[in-house]
C-alpha cells in the first residue's frame, strides 16, 4: 500500500517503487485525475496493469487509451452529463457551472454542457487548493441562474456546501453535483445537503441481488452504509479476482489476465456491467436526491435512471495497440 498524498511527483516515485522493486502485477487506486495522469506511464510501461476505481479522464478514454489500463467507475464526462440532461428535460433555462481547475473539473463541466442546451450564465474554475468560495458564490448569485452545478469532491465539497448554505442559497437555487455530496461526506455536510441532487452510476438502494448482499454485509461489518468509493473498490477487487482465476491463478500471465478482464465476468453490484473497447464501462447512470429519512438520518435515494447502457463518446478515438 502506498499513499500518494495528492502529490503527483510523490505518486510517480511510489509507483516506480511498486513496479520496479516490488514487481507488483496490479496498481489500483488513483482517486484524483491529476494523480492518474502522473502514474499512467510508469505503471503501464513498467509492466503492471493499472486499474482506476475512480478517475476516468477523457484523454485516456480516447486517443491515449492503453491496453494495460482499465477503469471500473466511469468516464468522467458521463456521470456529470446526468445533471445536464435532467436540467434540459425539466425545462431549466439558465445554469451556472463551477469546478476545480484540473482535468476532472474540465471533464465535469464538459459533460454537463454536452446534454444541457440552455444558457450557461457563468462558468468558473477555481484553484484545486481553494477553500473560500465567497467571491464565486457572489458572482453566481448575481448571474441569477435557475440552477447551479458544481463538482467539488471530498473535503472541497464539504467546505463548498457549508458556504453555499451559509449564503442562504440552499432554498433559492437548486444545486446539482456529482461526488460533492455522497455518503462519505453527508455527516459532515449535515442539513446543507438536504434537497441537493447528485448523479451516479450506483447507489445503495439499487435493486439487484449482488448489491443487496454487498450493502447488507458492509453495514453489518462496519456499522454504516457504503459509499460510492467502497462500491468502486469492491467491483475492482471482483474484477481482479475473476481475471486471475480465469488465468489459472497466475497473475504474471498478463495477456490472459487482460483478455479475462475485458470480459468483466463477475457479478457487479451495479447490475449490468461490461467494458467498451477503450476499457471504460458501459453502464447505467442515475439521478439521486439527498433527503432526511423518517429516522432523521440523511440518505440518498434514486429518483430516475437517466441513461441506460451508456457508452462514452471518446471510445471511437481509441485504437488499442
Following the backbone from N to C, one meets helices and strands in this order, namely HEHEHEHEHEHEHEHEHHHEEE
- How many β-strand stretches? 11
User: Termini, distance in Å?
Assistant: 30 Å
Radius of gyration: 20 Å
Q: Main β-sheet, in a few words?
A: 8 strands, mixed
Mean pLDDT: 94
Please indicate the percent range of residues in DSSP E strands (runs of 2 or more): 15-25%
Structural write-up:
The protein is an alpha/beta fold and 321 residues long. It contains 11 helices and 11 strands. Strands 4, 5, 6, 7, 8, 9, 10 and 11 form an 8-stranded mixed sheet that branches. A 3-stranded parallel sheet has the order 1-2-3, with helices on both faces. Strand 4, helix 5 and strand 5 form a beta-alpha-beta unit. Helix 1 runs parallel beside helix 2 (33-45), helix 4 (76-89) runs parallel beside helix 5 (103-115) and helix 10 (228-246) crosses helix 11. The longest helix has 19 residues, at 228-246.
Looking at this protein, list some descriptive labels.
single chain, 321 residues, alpha/beta, 8-stranded mixed sheet, 3-stranded parallel sheet, 11 helices, 11 strands
Task: Give me a quick take on this structure.
This protein is of the alpha/beta class and 321 residues long. The protein contains eleven helices and eleven strands.
